[in-house]
Amino acid sequence: QVQLVESGGGSVQAGGSLRLSCVASGFTGSRNCVVWFRQAPGKEREGVASINTGSDTPYYADSVKGRFTIAQDNAKNTVSLQMNSLNPEDTAMYYCAAMRAITLGRCLLIGQSYIHWGQGTQVTVSS
């Protein structure tokens, strides 16, 4: 019943930008944690940014602070991830995930806590 669909990935040069989108359907209520994760081949999955849709509270991993911005568009049921100043280390498959938020506070970047996942969108950054 719950579906998450990512889009917006592609190939860019270092220093470039991309905007990823996660369109959600089948959710009930207005308070959810939506998180962007990424995983590169041979590396562990890493949480990069989250948003509490009930309070519009963002949270970022230290590695992307100042470069990435997460935002929601309630009218479109969409959470976006604006990625600027990309570098080759950002190359990965990017996934959005969601779960019901317990509070209106920030959502932690712990993948094991999320029960709904999209199929991912590939981001490739060349030197």
Structure description:
It is built from no helices and 11 strands. The mean pLDDT is 95. Helix content is 0%, strand content 51%. The strands form 2 sheets. Strands 2, 4, 5, 6, 9, 10 and 11 form a 7-stranded mixed β-sheet that branches. Strands 1-3-8-7 form a 4-stranded antiparallel β-sheet, with no helix packed on it. With 127 residues, the chain is mainly β.
Which spans of ≥5 residues are poorly predicted at pLDDT below 50?
none
Helix-strand category: mainly beta
Order of helices and strands: EEEEEEEEEEE
Strand content: over 45%
Quaternary state of the chains: single chain
- Our Rg estimate from Cα atoms comes to 14 Å
Mean pLDDT: 95
Largest sheet: 7 strands, mixed
SS summary, helix count: 0
Question: What's the short version?
Answer:
The chain is mainly β and 127 residues long. Helices cover 0% and strands 51% of the residues.
Q: What labels would you give this structure?
A:
mainly beta, 127 residues, 4-stranded antiparallel beta sheet, 7-stranded mixed beta sheet, single chain
What are the SSEs and their pairings?
Blueprint: E1 3-7, E2 10-13, E3 18-25, E4 32-39, E5 46-52, E6 57-60, E7 68-73, E8 78-83, E9 92-100, E10 116-117, E11 121-126
Parallel strand pairs: 2-11
Antiparallel strand pairs: 1-3, 3-8, 4-5, 4-9, 5-6, 7-8, 9-10, 9-11
